What does this fold into?
Amino acid sequence: MTLTILILIYLFAVCLALSLLYGPLRKAMDPEHRRAAGTIMVSVVLGVLFMFPLIGALVPDGPVCWFFQKWGNIIAGYMIYFFGMLLVVRIIEGIVRLRRRRRTGEKQPISRKYAIAVLAVLFIGAVAINVFGSLAAHDIKTTFYELPRETLGQKEPLRVVLIADTHIGVNTTPDFSEEMVARVNEQNPDLVVVAGDILTSSYGAMRQPDAYSSILSQIKAKKGKYVIYGNHDVDEPLLGGFTFVGAENAHRNPEMEQFIKDCDWTLLKDDVVRLPELEGLCIAGRRDESRPGDGVKERASLEELLKDTKPEERILLLQHEPSDLEELDRYGIDLSVSGHTHDGQIFPGNVLTRILSPQSYGMKEWGGASVIVTSGVGYYGPPIRVGTISEVVVIDFK
It folds into this structure.
């Protein structure tokens, strides 16, 4: 999508939101329609706040850009719920007033008390949702799954910890990463696998790479720590969560690979590694489907990725997006683990993703392959979770 089209869509959405608000706002502030200055002033202030994400997308990477991105993300959380609920209220109002007009033939204007009450309730509701959503986003849960050890050909019990979507960036802090590392280490894992989206489309926005790598390197795993890149582990501008550059222009910061090494993680880029100490278990790590990065136009297919594996070998597939699910069994994949979806992150996104996606969350069997998709341990855009959880996933093979 081009920048011009994206800006026009965004500005249209802003104008629509402000137009929904103008009527009840003016009724609450200027019921006699004598002076609209106060209403216009509030609308202008809201319009300026709406511009924060746009400015953050257009200004080059740096402190100014990160300031507008940070506060734009926070503001977006409040705007989404305030104006989303306002839209529902205005639709219901319209239906009720239309039915009443058909029945009585008279227009029924809204009262000032009603307008004040609605705006107050929506404001308080948006604040409450965001406060509780922020608490939920920063409250890391531990989710457990259990599979037979034969799934990965193990003779002894094996514990694998899956994390994804840390989305380090303008709205994160090292303290949150420390909490995540503590939760992982509490589980005493044999293996740790990281399913991508370590960053949020800007290496520089991490601001303290040495602090983060020092913290993340403290993850302990007896048999290794493996990571892949996700679609946001590149440097590219974002507006409202969408990018306006093609995959060929989404470049990975050259310091990113050193950061991974400093985290003491093993990076897989369309690679397969064998672990003799785990009965020869193969870990296959795929590049991201939409943003393979590093000048690669298209990631390896499953056939290409697994061409050197043998039918009797057990395969754990690590891919950012839960894709090619119907093909997994065909290529002898025993377990596929992913993130990316965030389980929708905020209501009603969680409902929509579960309806529209083949598998947006949890564990499911696809033929002979087990698939686990985590909601992730971080957040994208607004630093909140509503109806979903931040989680560390523990997979026990017993």
About this structure: The two ends are 47 Å apart (CA to CA). The mean pLDDT is 94. The chain has two domains: 3-135, 141-397.
